[in-house]
Amino acid sequence: MERRIKNLKPRTHSTDRKARVGSVFYALRSKVAGFTIIELLTVIGIVAILGTVTTIAINPPELLAQGRDERRIADLEIVNQALGLTLPEGASFFRGVPKTIYLSLPDLSPYPGNCSGYLGLSELAPDWNYACAHPDIYQKINGDGWVPVNFENLSLPPTMASLPIDPNPDSSEGLYYSYVVDDRGNWELNANMESKRFRYGGDYDIESTDGGNTIVLYEVGTTVHLAPREVSARTGIVLRTPAETCGFDYNPIDSNYPNRHPEFYNRWTPPGSGTAVITKLWFYQTNMSLAANETVELAVYRDGDPDYNKISESVIATGTASAGWISSSLYSPIPISLGSTYIFGVGPYDFVDGFWWKTDSTQEGVGFTPCFDPTDNPSGYQNRDGGHMLNDMVPFTSSTSANVRPGMPGMTYTPH
Fold this sequence. Notes:
Blueprint: H1 2-7, H2 13-58, H3 60-84, E1 100-106, E2 129-133, E3 178-181, E4 187-191, E5 218-221, E6 237-240, E7 263-268, E8 275-285, E9 295-302, E10 315-318, E11 324-337, E12 342-350, E13 381-385, E14 409-415
């Protein structure tokens, strides 16, 4: 037995076994490691794509703008309800000065109170004014704030401790609140929506559905048509026809229609795509073409409509006795489709000594049909008419003259 034990040799396959196990483990580890790297890269790529798609779909800037718009809606409702508490006080209760646009912007101007330190504010009619309160008190509810109503003296004071202001105030972008009152105690509050969702044409458009007279501002109050038409043009893109291609020098009296002035209907295709809202119409006058007491009438018509109906109100622009563009805001802004053709009517309204429309190569603009003689290109624009005021429909008359050219229109619009 001892001999047998002594003759037994230790097994030698343990080393080989370790080697084989190690080889298998290494192979498996290599396979697993290689698969993990590829998988990791694949997952990273998928996550990156999904992240990009999700970011685009969510659109953080738009969501932030929607949040601010929701606050704007709530803010105006708070102020509107507070103003409602003044109704029991009667019409004689002081709610502000008529023909004044009170803004929720702190006054930064060297001339206190008139908001002249801000860019982007529309020019108002001579009998209208802006009003801003001092930065230290413009949110007070004691009558010193941007809404000049003493809410503290009401028999039933409101719950608000201070007047709200726009969450992202910027006068150049039209982001502020405004307040207007008339002499009967009626009021109107306005705010400019920032997000695509709440603006005109959006899924939750509240600007054109609030019952007010403008489709580019949110309006609440007892009467939502008190604000002057200029407030509709808070912001916008100015597009004007290339004056170097259009113009004429014409005696104001039309020989075919004695004692009547001619009017002209110009075809224009504003470039671009999508929907826009026109808030202001422009006209170019040359030096001394319109005196300070002379005016021109402007309107927009639908091209291609069987009757070529007028789709805007007529507005009146006043001359300045110097070369340059003059304009007038639409009281009710109108939607158009960029890239489509419209007809812009231009006619005299109150001329004293006549007028001249001439070229000026310094002006800007694109999309206007070049002005040829009617005999060369009768489809370039509609014929002139002998009426004193612009027609409700574009007239087609035979009273054309080879030396007549259309005027030079322009517009201010906001894309949507």
